[in-house]
Amino acid sequence: MNNQVIFNLAVSDLDRSKAFFAGLGFHFKPQYSSDNTAYMVVVDDCIHAMLMTEAFFASLIDKPVASAHQANEVIICLSCESREELEGLIARARAAGARIPHPLEDHGFMVDQGFEDLDGHLWNLVWMAPQP
């Protein structure tokens, strides 16, 4: 089995979403993108997201496209290499227009905080303290 994860997200404005995620430091592979899609690298060659216009996303399924502003189906969780990386990503997300649903939580062994992107998708960031 291949060791890549590719998740698909419906977005209302593809160009706006690309600009938002580029502002967070993600990059795109145009060779895998189209007028209706943008292939985004989340973590090196391991995790990718295919941002899709809502109309194109709807053409691939046989039920309505859910509005992530109205209901949550999934929370995308990414681990960070440091607390500083986590806090920097949250700051960039806030500056790019993301909603921050809760303050940073420090559990001693783990720090977490999340953001809601422009289309309502929830992203959670965690940093786990190294264990001796």
How are the SSEs placed, and which strands pair?
Blueprint: E1 5-11, H1 14-23, E2 27-28, E3 37-43, E4 47-53, H2 54-59, E5 75-79, H3 83-95, E6 105-106, E7 110-116, E8 122-128
Parallel strand pairs: 1-4, 5-8
Antiparallel strand pairs: 2-3, 3-4, 6-7, 7-8
What's the domain count? 2
Q: Quote the CATH topology of the largest domain.
A: 2,3-Dihydroxybiphenyl 1,2-Dioxygenase, domain 1
Which class of secondary structure composition applies to the elements? alpha/beta
Task: State the end-to-end distance.
Answer: 33 Å
Oligomer: single chain
Share of β-strand residues: 25-35%
Compute the number of helices.
3
Rg: 15 Å
What is the CATH superfamily of the largest domain?
Answer: 2,3-Dihydroxybiphenyl 1,2-Dioxygenase, domain 1
User: Which geometry do the CA atoms define?
Assistant: globular
Which sheet architecture does the biggest sheet show?
4 strands, mixed
Helix content: 10-25%
Order of helices and strands: EHEEEHEHEEE
CATH level 1 class label of the largest domain: Alpha Beta
Order of strands across the biggest sheet?
1-4-3-2
Q: List how many beta strands DSSP finds.
A: 8
> Judging by the overall fold, what is the CATH architecture of the largest domain?
Roll
The unreliable regions are none
Q: Average the pLDDT over all residues and give the rounded result.
A: 94
